[in-house]
Amino acid sequence: MLPSVIRHNRAFARLWGASAISNAGTLLTYLALPLVAFAETRSGATFAAVSAAELVGTIASMLVGGALADRLDRRRLMLIGDALLFAAAVGVGLAVHGQLWSLVVALALVQGTVGGLFAANGALLRDIVAEEDRTQANSLDQVSMNVVNLVVPLAGVGIFTAIGFTPIIIIDALTFAVSFALVWGVHDPAQRGSMRIGIGAAARTVLLDVGAGVALARRDRYLRWGVVSGGINGLGNGMLGIAVVPWLAEVRHLPTSAWGLIITGIGASGLAAAFVAARIGSRIAPVDMLRIGCAFACMGAVGFLGSQPLVVLALGVLCFGVGNVFVGIASATITQSRYPSDYQGRIGAMGRMCFFACNLIGVASTGLLVGRISPSWLVSGFALLLIASMALFLWALRFVDEPTGLAVERANVTDEELATSG
Questions:
Q1: What rounded mean pLDDT belongs to the chain?
Q2: DSSP assignment of 271-287, as one string?
Q3: Cα distance between residue 408 and residue 411, in whole Å
Q4: Which CATH fold would you assign to the domain 1-131+143-196?
Q5: Cβ atoms 359, 234 nearer than 8 A
Q6: Whose CA, among 35, 51, 386, 413, lies 20 to 30 Å from 28?
Q7: Which CATH superfamily groups domain 217-411?
Q8: Helix (H) or strand (E) run with residue 44 in it
Q9: Whole-angstrom Cα distance, residue 324 to residue 293?
């Protein structure tokens, strides 16, 4: 039987389906763009440039996308995002046949920039799902995310190897078209503002709203340390992504294909944890789920310390996947309950931006250190950073019951100010 939040909440069912399909298309685009660039130029530098452009574009757009999601109609923003991503997929298809790799670089930047608009997704979920159902809704989001992460890379590479780019581009464009159709049927109950504001007023509002979100993070200790914890986690994940292959080969004496098994193990255990949370999550307080998730993540980190027996590494991989999912579900549910709707976009954007920015730093710095420092030290560094981030998140829970200050001081630009500035 389907979970109750899907059976009884049509708006969430549409949003969940749109999110899953759009995430699949986004991941497929992330995989296809660098491959297209490499196929046209046979240049590893171009491959790296497009991959970096995707991530840099996403980081740069996060705060602006979060501010827009808090100011404007979130449903409309998601429709715009799907439409632009559909156009990007079509553009990639034209670039393949026209051998215009420079267009692919531009589209990678567009892809990253549009990603900021999807800060609206989590914020809209908070508006259309009752508080008692949010743990289950966030769990289902994790289910779809883990399914996408398990299936899409294997399917995308398989399709590319067998019959080339064209089917990937067609599938990619279709995912965004289907997502657009599903989002069209979702109603945003908040009815924020109007899309017809002047450019000057919109720019002024976005900058002020971004500043208001940053100010909230500075004065709210739970949010501040939660964002810092996410950044430390992102740094460690970036290190692992680069150091793990030489670590497997030189220290563990395993084939590089073992990295695929690790990714699969993390995804499969995370998927199982999300299913469990969807079934019983409503019976567990989000704070307790967060504590359980942090404990699992720390146990997972132990498997990557030094040269543990293979069984310890395998158990560590499984615990890591479970911990990541529980922490993600619980932190999203706490944020949705703790902060008002008109800050949800910026809060989610700040967390993701900090994670991705630190992830990029971890990738770049580890790339420079590989070959100079033992891979064992680098992977152990990831494990220690993961433990530190979870410990910091647990410490942040001390402040979860503190008032945010938003009831006393509203830092948002008011609608009256917006009207007079236009």
A1: 82
A2: HHHHHHHHHHGGGS-HH
A3: 10
A4: Growth Hormone; Chain: A; (1.20.1250)
A5: yes
A6: 386
A7: MFS general substrate transporter like domains (1.20.1250.20)
A8: helix 44-71
A9: 7
